[in-house]
Hints:
Layout: E1 4-14, E2 19-27, E3 30-38, E4 42-49, E5 53-61, E6 66-70, E7 73-75, H1 82-94, E8 96-108, E9 117-128, E10 139-145, H2 146-155, H3 161-174
Parallel strand pairs: 4-9
Antiparallel strand pairs: 1-2, 2-3, 4-5, 4-7, 5-6, 5-10, 8-9
Amino acid sequence: xxxxxxxxxxxxxxxxxxxxxxxxxxxDGHRMVRDTIEHPGAVVIVPMLGRSRVVLVRQYRRAVDRxxxxxxxxxxxxxxxxxxxxxxxLREETGWQARRWRRIGRxxxxxxxxxxxxxxxxxxxxxPVPLEPEPDELVEPVVLPLREALAKVRSGAICDAKxxxxxxxxxxxxx
Length: 175
């Protein structure tokens, strides 16, 4: 294993959610500079109506300037338990709440540059509640058969990584 030392770490930008750092590293005597982003982590929810239909959201994403079909998800607030975040985001984005929750996986979004780790929850036994989107969210709930959502993954119509991973985790579990 190579020896890695952080020689210098400078805060470049502090945002509402992320912090950007410029770091000088030494790996086995070689110096290099890396930009890294600290993120508090997030949750992804796979809300199932029965065993065959999934609740997704159509949501505008500014970074890609388009509407995407995604699983509901959200960023952890400071000190917030992951399950509490998942419950909150499901209500806010879809207008559903769940009686049964199960953690079905975890993954890093883009570990080459950001520390964000996402935890995936399966939400079952859903019942409707008032939709409460955040003021800056443009979301529309969409219910699809799970098979159709997976077909959209294969065709490229669903191109959001967290949604692809969450749907594949759920498919494996529900098979």
